[in-house]
Model the fold of this input.
Amino acid sequence: MSSSKSSLFAARWLAVPAAALLFTACASTSSTSTTTAAAQAPAAPVKVKVFVAAMFEIGKNTGDRAGEFQHWYERYWKDAKPIAVPGALQPVYCNADGVCGSVLGMGKVNSSSSMQAILLNPQFDFSQSYYVISGVAGTPPSRGTIGEVSWATWLVDYDLGHRWAPEENKPGEPTFMPRKGYEEYRRFRLNPDLVGWAMKLSADTPLKDSESARKYRLRYPDAAARRAPFVGTGTHMTGDTFFHGPGMSKQAQYIAKLYGADDYVITEMEAAAITLVIKRTHGTDRVMSLRGAVNFDQGNPKETTLQHLDPAPGETAGGFAETVENIELVGSRVVDHIVANWSTWSGGVPKP
Done:
């Protein structure tokens, strides 16, 4: 063989393993890239069936004095890992059944900003979720009692309007005027079918009571105030103003009627704002507001409003521990029913 042919043969022979090596290297790199991509791929979002929103916890989530979140946490999330959400006050907890919850913070701005951060976080799928806005509240003695638990039929914002001092008004007339432009923000009628289901599933829940609460109720002459704890419905009034006194209570009822809502039965600080956030992303058909009364919105006939706001030692209403337990006892009946019958509820609220 001539030297030129020998050189050509050698070049062709050497080219074969080089190409093979190149193919092997590319295949290896592709495999490594695929494995790395798979490892770095984000986990599928949690499909949230029910989200429970509390406003505060007193200490830890378990093992000490319970606030609004502890009984929910101990029922659903004791073994759950916290999921951090940028922009939210506290982590979110979820169990394997799709029940999630978090502490959002007190007040309209605090709670609604947390809710929005959670709703928009890609770690969660809220496309079919139900919501339980859960917490403690006040009640007028003419319509409620310490330890009761109430499902909202309407949520009304107490703050969106004009107010002025009573001495600048005609005696006995309201010192409130609605502000135009807030018609879509100031009231929400919650899904009547869902409220009907909530009452059907929870109205007969055995509720806790305390001797201190029973004694405190007797300071009030109203029949409603002296009742044992019960499960009821009505309008929940949302306001950052922690209002007290018969005059302000009367004004809350005036606003509820002015807006065409049911009787005012609960005063709280968050639900209307949280519901507005949910409405803008998923609507309000699956929103529930659940509150337990731990105080009356006014003093008894023998004390002034200031005395009621700043009671002497031993003069406060009892029943806080029992009320926060009652809230979870009532609410979990609805949560458990929805999850256990998800094939029926996932598409929307069935007719009661």
